[in-house]
Amino acid sequence: xxxxxxxxxxxxxxxxxxxxxxxxxxxxxxxxxxxxxxxxxxxxxxxxxxxxxxxxxxxxxxxxxxxxxxxxxxxxxxxxxxxxxxxxxxxxxxxxxxxxxxxxxxxxxxxxxxxxxxxxxxxxxxxxxxxxxxxxxxxxxxxxxxxxxxxxxxxxxxxxxxxxxxxxxxxxxxxxxxxxxxxxxxxxxxxxxxxxxxxxxxxxxxxxxxxxxxxxxxxxxxxxxxxxxxxxxxxxxxxxxxxxxxxxxxxxxxxxxxxxxxxxxxxxxxxxxxxxxxxxxxxxxxxxxxxxxxxxxxxxxxxxxxxxxxxxxxxxxxxxxxxxxxxxxxxxx
Amino acid sequence: xxxxxxxxxxxxxxxxxxxxxxxxxxxxxxxxxxxxxxxxxxxxxxxxxxxxxxxxxxxxxxxxxxxxxxxxxxxxxxxxxxxxxxxxxxxxxxxxxxxxxxxxxxxxxxxxxxxxxxxxxxxxxxxxxxxxxxxxxxxxxxxxxxxxxxxxxxxxxxxxxxxxxxxxxxxxxxxxxxxxxxxxxxxxxxxxxxxxxxxxxxxxxxxxxxxxxxxxxxxxxxxxxxxxxxxxxxxxxxxxxxxxxxxxxxxxxxxxxxxxxxxxxxxxxxxxxxxxxxxxxxxxxxxxxxxxxxxxxxxxxxxxxxxxxxxxxxxxxxxxxxxxxxxxxxxxx
DNA sequence: TGAATTTTTGCAACCGATTGCAAAATTTTG
DNA sequence: CAAAATTTTGCAATCGGTTGCAAAAATTCA
Lengths: 333, 333
Hints:
homodimer, 333 residues, alpha/beta, 434 Repressor (Amino-terminal Domain), Rossmann fold, six-stranded mixed β-sheet, DNA-binding
C-alpha cells in the first residue's frame, strides 16, 4: 500500500502538505495541491481511513444492530440505511443479533471498532446497551423503539398504542363484532403497546374482544399456525394482525378452511410491506412509515456525531390505514 | 476511552504485557495475565481494533457489495453472511451499489477502509473491481458469479446454463408445447446463461420456443407487467421465469386474466425463495442453494485472508427442482 | 547446586495518518 | 517599496496499539 510518506517524497513536499490536500477544509496552496494530486494519482495513493481514525478519533462507522433477518420489511431498512449513510460519508457496520450467543459480545465488538454511533432496529432493546454506550459517549438511536424518555436513548418510531386504537376503531366502524387480535411475539414492547391501545379502544366502544393470541415470531408460518389453532377453537369475524407476514399466513390458513375473504372473515395487517399490495393478498393494512423512520434515524445519528451532547429526542411518525380488499367496506351511514 | 497505557500503569507492567494478554497466542505468564485482566476489568478497557489494525495491517473487515435490496432472497444472503463472518471473528462492511452514483467510489471506499476481503453478491460484476483489488492484494469472491476463469476472481455459484437446460427438460417432459421464457434483466450474465441453456436444450428436444422476453428487474411488478404484455400478444402453455418474484407477478397477471394454474398455464420459477412455498402461490421452482453459496463464500474469503496467494477457485453447487403445484404432473409413461 | 535451556518481560521502533505551533512565503496596505 | 497582515509550510508530537530483540526470570537437567 502506498503511504503518505511516499507521496510526499514524490511530490517534493512535507507529509503534512499531503495530509492537508486530502482533508476537507485544510489550508494548502493550489500549487502544492496540484503537485500532490499528481503524485498521488501516479502512485495510486488512497489515504488510510484506519490511520486517520486513529489520529482523529472518528471512524465514520455506524453500527446497525438488527435481529430480524427473515422479514422482508427489513430489506427496505437495510436499503435506506446503507444509502442514507453512504450519502453522508458514513459506513454501516452490520450486527446480526439473531444468533450472536451474547448481545454483550456484539456490544464489545462495536466498542472495539470505535463506531461513531449506533442505530438499533429492533422493537426490543438489549437492556445493557444504552448505559454501555452512553458511558462511552457514543450516540444510540433506537429505531422502532418504545416511547420512554427514561431509557436515555433517542427513539425514532411510531406510537404503537395509537395504532392499536386505530385498528380497533377501523374494525368496529365496519360493523365487525367478533374481533380477535393476533399479535407478534408477546415479549416485544411494540406488541404490548399495540395490544393495550387495541383493548382500550375496544373497551371505549363497548366491544369485547373475541380472542387475543400471539404468533411465535414475525413469520408467515407462525401466523399460519396460530390461525389454524384459533380456527379450531372458535369463529371470528375479523382479525387484527401484528404484522403483514403473520397476516398472510393467517389468511392462507383461513382460505385453507374454505373461508372467503372478506365475506366470511376480515383481515387487517400491519406494516404495509410491498407484498401487501400483491393481488393474491391485497391486504388492507396499517402503513408504518419505515422510510421516514430510517431516514430520520440516519439523519439524527449523523447530527449527534457532530454535536455529542444534544439532549434526548423522541421522533414519532404517524401511521395510516391503507384500504385494499380484506375488510368489508364501511357501511353507508 | 481507556488505553493500553493506563491499564499497564494500573497493573504495574509494561505496555507490551498488556498487549500480549489481549493477543491470541502471545506469551504471558499466568500471573501477569491475571494482574492485567483485573486492571482491565476495573477500568473497563476495550482494545482498540483501529489501532490494532494499523499496527497489524489487518482489519478483520470484509466488504459485502450488493445491488439488490428489494428482493427478499437477499435477506437470507445478509443473514448468512453476517452470521458466518461473526462466527469467525470478522465483520461485514455493507456497500449498497444500487444508488452509489459511481461504483468506483465504493471501490475507493473499500480500499480506504483496508478491508481484508470482499464478497460481491451480484450477477453482474463491475468490471474494474477485480483488477483494482488484485493489485492491492485483496481477495475478491464473486458470489452468484459467472463461470469464467479469466476474470481473476474466485467464483462461487451455480451453473446457470445447466439450470436453463433443466428447466427446458422439465417443461417438455410434462408435455408442454408452447413454452416461453420470461427472464430477469437481459443484461445479467446469469440471465444470458440460463437462456442459452434453455434454448439449447429445447433445440435438442425439437421444440421451438413460443416466446422469449425479459423483465425490467427482479421484482413482482416487473414480472406482472411483462406477463400482461405477453398475454396480450399470444397464448402460451408454460412459462419459465428467471426469478420467483417475477414468476409470482406473472402468475397474478395470468390469474387476473382468468387463467387457472396449472390447468390453463404452467409456471416454473427460479430460486425457491421462502414465499414460493406459500399456499397462495405454491410454486414449482428450481432451488438455488443460496445457503451453500454464501457459507462457502465466507469460508473461502476467510481462508484467503490467511493464505493470500492461493490460486483461483470456482465452486459450483447444483440446483434441483422443487415440485409444487404450478406445473401439471408428469404423464404416466 | 550450577550450568544450560526455555519462558517471560520491557524497550523502543513502527504502523499511517493528523495537527498545534512557529517559521517562511505570500499578499495586502499605506 | 517597506511594513503589516495573512496564508502556507514543515517540524515533531501524537493517536493506541504490535513486535523483534535482548535482557531477566524461571525452569530443566546433569
